Amino acid sequence: MLKVCGHQIDIKAVFPGSLGCKECLQQGMQWVHLRLCRTCGHVGCCDSSPGRHAAAHFRTTAHPVIEGYDPPEGWGWCFVDEVVVDLPDQTPQRGPIPRYA
Questions:
Q1: Which domains does the chain have, with CATH numbers?
Q2: Residues in domain UBP-type (predicted)?
Q3: Which of 1, 18, 47, 63 is 20 to 30 A away from residue 69, measured at CA?
Q4: Please, what is the average pLDDT of the chain?
């Protein structure tokens, strides 16, 4: 059975809140890839990164959809429905993103 995301309505145009994973920058950690919350603009690291801050942001806020952000990947993911989602647009990067803190 094909899974469908019921959270397309929650996808917003957002302004990235930081130039890298917010928590990794604060804690001096490294990330692998970045994910952008399409509800509030929080930038967190992916599940392959030690901090897994994008998923932690979801668990804290219940904001359902993230965008593959660094490098810009053009896809979204819904944490609630566990499915790739089509995004209405791709968020431009705010500026040069440091590779690591």
A1: 15-85 (3.30.40.10)
A2: 1-101
A3: 1
A4: 91
